[in-house]
């Protein structure tokens, strides 16, 4: 993956280094000319002063010897006097191989080393000054480095500054990524363009276009499912009516075909209802705000609505709700969870069975257990029953296979979790609902 930050640094750091080296080379060239001319001027003045001294005193002056240290580190020049026959009369240091130059002025000479030699030809005695070239280069490099030093020191500083600026400039992009990551299929609101930098704005505008198209596609799909479900209801109601009339005409004589017809109509009714419920639930997430409720009230409402089913099947329903559990959830979602689980328990428990609903605590927080005396679910299918339209083979009870899928998605949206387990003490299913942390964990109120 290419990174803008990395690319920028990969280009800029070498650029800085090349600039610093370039600055140093240019400075060296300038110093070579300027300092060279200045040092040559000094040698010229020194040679002149020796010549004047010689003219005045009419004898060779005594020369203080120049050692290696002074020659190489201080740049002290060696002083030489030569006669008209190019014979060395006196030298402040032996310079083997070096002769008197043919013309006055400065020049570079190689003789057992590199030297800058300044010659002042005169009669009867000529003066020649010899300075170490390596000393002169050292001085020039030093000065060149001194002028490039600020640029070199600025490199880490400007990289730091650059890093900071790049980070700040890319911040809106990071914010945009975060906003998009937090979105789900229910939140297709447009992304804000106002504070975005000009470079990112076209991206946001096209994303907003895409979001709009998605929104309208979802709305069309939602409308289609709702319309289809509504349209199905009318002929279904007519079918129910026709079946009732047929039964009335046939009187009390048992009729298998009619029973099956009524069962089919019932299943179709249930399917349409569940489909509508699922569709509405998916799209109401952002419309309904979570509320603070005592979960016991939600459970009691579910149970009282389903009591007629229990009565019809003579199922003993036990409700143990010992203490209040105040949680924040969307009430319709919580109802959906308990309606589906309690309805399943009642539906799949044979006549005369028992269903117990218990509010208690686990290590993870408050839980509600819905325990029945039905056949349970084979362990390998415990995960599959949450799939949409999944029904166990050979199921005699009518249903659409959507109930647990509806309950599961409602639970997830509200920080709840459903776990199904077969009972170990006898046949039957135990459905456990893990609730969000209760807001009254310090209270203990008996119901
Ligand atoms: N308490 C239970 N005991 C035994 N089997 C169960 C129980 N609850 C669910 N099941 C099995 O899981 C399947 C899926 O359940 P789910 O509630 O999703 O659909 P359904 O009950 O068939 O239809 P509906 O959409 O009308 O609820 C059921 O068909 C049933 O086979
Ligand atoms: Mg069900």
TrEMBL record:
Segments forming domain HAMP: 167-219
Record flagged with keyword Repeat: no
Keywords: Kinase, Membrane, Phosphoprotein, Transferase, Transmembrane, Transmembrane helix, Two-component regulatory system
Localization: Membrane
Reactions listed under catalytic activity: ATP + protein L-histidine = ADP + protein N-phospho-L-histidine
Bilayer-crossing regions: 9-28
Domain of life: Bacteria
Domain named Histidine kinase: residues: 227-439
Pfam families (UniProt xref): HAMP (PF00672), HATPase_c (PF02518), HisKA (PF00512)
E.C. code: 2.7.13.3
Class of enzymatic activity (EC top level): transferase
Record membrane topology: Multi-pass membrane protein
Entry protein name: histidine kinase
Protein source organism: Dyella mobilis
């Amino acid at each position: 993956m290419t990174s803008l930050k990395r690319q920028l640094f990969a280009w800029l750091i070498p650029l800085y280094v090349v600039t610093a080296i370039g600055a140093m080379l240019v400075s060296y060239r300038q110093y070579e000319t300027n300092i060279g001319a200045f040092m040559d001027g000094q040698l010229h003045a020194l040679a002149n002063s020796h010549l004047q001294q010689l003219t005045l005193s009419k004898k060779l002056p005594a020369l203080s010897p120049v050692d290696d240290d002074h020659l190489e580190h201080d740049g002290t020049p060696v002083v030489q006097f030569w006669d008209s026959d190019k014979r060395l009369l006196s030298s402040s240091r032996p310079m083997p191989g070096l002769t008197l130059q043919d013309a006055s002025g400065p020049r570079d000479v190689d003789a057992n080393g590199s030297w800058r030699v300044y010659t002042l030809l005169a009669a009867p005695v000529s003066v020649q000054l010899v300075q170490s070239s390596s000393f002169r280069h050292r001085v020039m490099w030093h000065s060149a480095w001194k002028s490039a030093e600020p640029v070199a020191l600025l490199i880490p500083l400007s990289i730091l500054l650059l890093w900071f600026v790049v980070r700040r400039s890319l911040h809106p992009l990071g914010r945009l990524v975060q906003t998009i990551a937090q979105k789900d299929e229910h939140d297709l609101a447009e992304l804000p363009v106002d504070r975005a930098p000009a470079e990112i704005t076209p991206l946001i505008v096209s994303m907003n276009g895409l979001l709009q198209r998605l929104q309208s596609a979802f709305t069309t799909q939602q409308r289609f499912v709702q319309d289809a479900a509504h349209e199905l209801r009318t002929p279904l109601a007519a079918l129910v009516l026709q079946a009732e009339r047929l039964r009335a005409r046939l009187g009390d004589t048992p009729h298998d075909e009619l029973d099956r017809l009524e069962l089919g109509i019932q299943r179709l009714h249930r399917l349409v209802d569940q489909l509508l419920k699922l569709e509405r639930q998916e799209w109401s997430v952002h419309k309904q705000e979570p509320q603070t409720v005592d979960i016991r009230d939600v459970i009691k409402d579910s149970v009282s609505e389903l009591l007629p089913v229990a009565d019809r099947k003579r199922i003993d329903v036990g409700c143990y709700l010992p203490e209040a559990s105040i949680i924040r959830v969307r009430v319709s979602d919580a109802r959906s969870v308990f309606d589906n689980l309690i309805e399943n328990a009642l539906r799949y428990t044979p006549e005369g069975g028992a269903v117990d609903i218990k509010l208690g605590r686990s290590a993870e927080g408050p839980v509600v257990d819905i325990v029945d005396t039905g056949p349970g679910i084979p362990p390998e299918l415990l995960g599959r029953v949450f799939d949409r339209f999944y029904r166990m083979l050979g199921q005699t009870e009518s249903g659409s296979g959507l109930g647990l899928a509806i309950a599961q998605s409602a639970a997830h949206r509200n920080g709840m979790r459903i776990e199904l387990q077969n009972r170990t003490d006898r046949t039957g299913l135990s459905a456990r609902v893990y609730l969000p942390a209760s807001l009254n964990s310090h209270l203990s109120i008996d119901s």
